[in-house]
Amino acid sequence: MSDAAAPAPKKKGGKMKVIVMAVGAILLVGGGVAGGMVAAGMGLGGAHAGPKVDPNAPKLVVRAGQSEDPTTAFKAVGSFKPDPRLYKASYYTMEQPFTSNLRDTDGIAQISLGVSTFYDAKVLDNFKDNEMPIRSAVLETLADQDAFALGTPEGKTALQGKLRDAMNKVLVQKTGYGGIDDVYFTNFIIQ
User: Which sequence spans correspond to the domains of the chain?
Assistant: First the structure.
């Protein structure tokens, strides 16, 4: 028999090279995705990782005699109303009264305010540090009120909520956190 008539042997390495390259590409892409998730702070757990807690955020102040509560981390304003039986409130009275014209009348309102928070001293420190823009927001809110509505208990309660929201909005803009839970009138005159 002659060697010329025998078929040439087939190369077996062609398919193996393609498989090895495909597996290598998958591993490379998967490693890049995992590295990107770790770098972005999502970890490999993805949605299972708990929310990041800012160590500088205000913490709820637990009342004496109550056990430490895991919910003391800061929660967004309006999303959580602390139980006053479990948490201790801190109060601050603003020294200067507010005097403002009222909307669509010749009347004026003069009010004095106090605030409370169930969070630690960071909230009241931030409040004091930003009292000027907070005063401005209070005056803007007060000037937008109707004299007749302020003469009713419901109107005064609604004004307290609007003032709390205005103060917290300023605090969030300036410090990243609100934390004012209630606003109190220490003096209230409408003329």
Answer: 11-50, 70-190
